[in-house]
Design a protein that fits this description.
heterodimer, A: Ferritin, 11 helices, about 65% helix, B: mainly alpha, two-stranded antiparallel sheet
Chain lengths: ~260, ~325
């Protein structure tokens, strides 16, 4: 935008920025896919509307980020090329977002963890020296504030609802807690970009995230899970076994008709 | 006097008013209908009118939420991110339509939970069209173009339906449906003008969805059980056959623009009538699907019941939380 901005982003390699945009974009795309699986199966009609709305916001973020990544690569890949023609090992999403929906409590736990992370991330990314990322963040930060609120409201209701919902919500929190560590791990792609002021150092997001999530969990009469096993690998394209099935479904039709436009 | 009757509480009216009061209420109702004015929830209305509306609005609401299944079937497989976003937004709109319509039905003194129970136990129906499967991506286009197209033709006159809340819900729904219809047409247009395989996919979808879409207007006028009374009450304004003819006349040039062939050898322009003649509809198929023997009837209802049962603990939790955290709940406990 300004000469200063151009100077500061000018020294970062476009390929690194593309990789960073892919990480953020893949997170949004894969979580959107999981949420859209709830369509017509959610606990009540209001939630069919709400979950589709969350999925749609995330899909919008993914499209912006994948398009941007494609333009930085300079190889002419479109958002669809990146979404539909990459293999499992080329996706850069965190393991958390690919975790299966489980029951509604598992989905809400995933939403609470991830929407709180995205809220912190996008708030910080508004100050990115990369004007494209800053603009995306400025728009998305408003969307994910709603996503977080939705997750908080349901965590409270399930945690402080019935004995069964309390048990299920606690189980959902426990099941997904290990996958949250990866969100705050500084990977090699981000390291270079943090120095340029382009990317956010994920380690700096952890304290606010933890305080926020713990506050909600406690208000919901639940217990913050203990740290232990901390699986990682999504950012390096090492996903769970279920991820190939997810991509198989997402990409099947597009791959069936090579070169067709839709 | 009549103004007084109009504002009279509907609940009070149920308490068997004397014969003269009853006929005065009926007279007032007839006058409103005759003057083409709206009946509002607070107005007295004949029980049969109320029941007819509950049946029709509930069936419409059920159709919206069951209709999410065949379309939802393709969200995770949409072939481009743009199409995925359009489809997600469309299915979300349908859930929203379900919500307004259940709310409109609730103004008639029924409860959404009871209506859902009637759907789940087969006591109330939904549009038979949703008992057909979406076998390919082109079916998403065909549903938008033909099914939403037929729905719009049915629903535009409902914006002037005599029952106010239903008429008003329809205004918003029609706007969104016409958007969906254009999107469906555009999807099919891209397929029909794409590769030979895509064109064949579009043609196959039209072949499968054409006749069921014509059936959406209901049985022929002579055999339509509820039509005459609904027209007298100005719930309905055009006959089934009239609306079906309008749909055929509108669709023929649209199919031409798509470069697709409507699967009816008897379809031709009739100069004398100023309409298209078309072939005989297989009403046996219609009756079979209506009776529960379509390709997906059992699956649609089972899937809905499953979602409802799986969500029961969530709804219970929300109620328990609300009771704990409202002052009323505390006082009552």
């Amino acid at each position: 935008m300004t000469a200063t901005t151009e100077a500061s982003t000018g020294s970062a390699s476009p390929a690194s920025v593309a990789q960073y945009a892919l990480q953020l974009g893949d997170d949004a795309l894969i979580l959107s896919h999981r949420l859209s699986e709830w369509c017509a199966h959610s606990p009540e009609l209001e939630e069919d509307v709400a979950l589709a709305n969350l999925a749609l916001d995330l899909l919008g973020q993914a499209r912006t980020l994948l398009t941007y990544a494609g333009s930085l690569e300079g190889a002419g890949r479109s958002e669809d090329d990146l979404a539909f023609l990459r293999t499992e090992r080329e996706f850069r999403n965190a393991l958390l977002v690919e975790q299966p929906n489980g029951d509604f409590a598992v989905t809400i736990a995933r939403q609470l963890y991830f929407a709180t992370y995205q809220s912190e991330l996008y708030a910080a990314l508004c100050d990115s020296t990369d004007p494209e990322l800053a603009a995306l963040a400025a728009k998305a930060v408003k969307e994910v504030a709603y996503h977080r609120d939705h997750a908080v409201q349901w965590t409270l209701r399930l945690g402080d609802g019935t004995a069964e919902s309390h048990r299920r919500m606690q189980a959902g929190l426990e099941q997904l807690w290990p996958y949250t560590a990866e969100l705050f791990f500084l990977d090699p792609v981000a390291t270079e970009l943090v120095q340029q002021g382009i990317a956010v150092d994920p380690r700096t997001l952890r304290p606010a995230w933890e305080a926020s999530v713990a506050g909600v969990i406690e208000a919901a009469t639940l217990t913050v899970p203990a740290d232990g096993w901390q699986p990682r690998g999504g950012r390096a394209g090492k996903h769970g076994e279920g991820f190939g099935l997810l991509l198989g479904e997402m990409q099947a039709l597009h791959r069936q008709y090579p070169g067709a436009s839709w | 006097m009549t103004a007084q009757a109009r504002t009279q509480d509907a609940a009070a009216a149920v308490a068997e008013p004397e014969l003269s009061a009853q006929s005065e209420l009926q007279g007032r109702f007839d006058d409103l209908i005759g003057a083409d004015e709206r009946i509002e929830p607070r107005d007295w209305m004949p029980e049969a009118y109320r029941k007819t509306l509950v049946r029709q609005i509930a069936q419409h609401a059920h159709s919206e939420i069951i209709g999410m299944q065949p379309e939802g079937n393709w969200i995770t497989r949409a072939p481009s991110l743009r199409r995925k976003a359009i489809l997600l937004a469309k299915v979300q709109d349908e859930a929203g339509h379900g919500l307004y319509l259940y709310a409109a039905a609730e103004t008639l003194g029924v409860d959404r939970a009871d209506l859902l129970d009637a759907l789940h136990t087969g006591r109330q129906k939904y549009s038979s069209i949703f008992n057909y499967p979406t076998l390919t991506w082109a079916d998403i286009g065909a549903i938008g173009w033909l099914v939403d197209g037929a729905a719009i033709i049915n629903q535009i006159p409902l914006q002037r339906c005599s029952y106010g809340p239903y008429a008003r819900a329809m205004v918003r729904i029609c706007k969104e449906e016409s958007f969906h219809q254009r999107q469906g047409f555009e999807l099919l247009h891209d397929l029909a003008h794409g590769t030979p395989e895509q064109h064949a996919m579009a043609q196959d979808a039209l072949d499968r969805w054409w006749w069921p879409s014509l059936m959406m207007f209901g049985p022929p006028d002579a055999e339509s059980a509820h039509s005459a009374q609904s027209m007298a009450w100005r719930i309905k304004r055009h006959s089934n056959d009239e609306l079906r003819q309008r749909f055929v006349d509108i669709s023929v040039p649209q199919a031409e623009a798509l470069g697709l062939r409507i699967p009816d050898p008897d379809l031709r322009w009739n100069e004398e009538r100023g309409h298209h003649d078309f072939g005989v509809i297989d009403w046996t198929e219609f009756q079979e699907v209506l009776a529960g023997n379509g390709p997906c009837n059992r699956q649609r209802v089972a899937s809905r019941v499953q979602a409802h049962e799986d969500g029961e603990w969530v709804r219970e939790a929300a109620l328990a939380y609300a009771a704990k955290h409202s002052d009323k709940g505390v006082a009552a406990a």
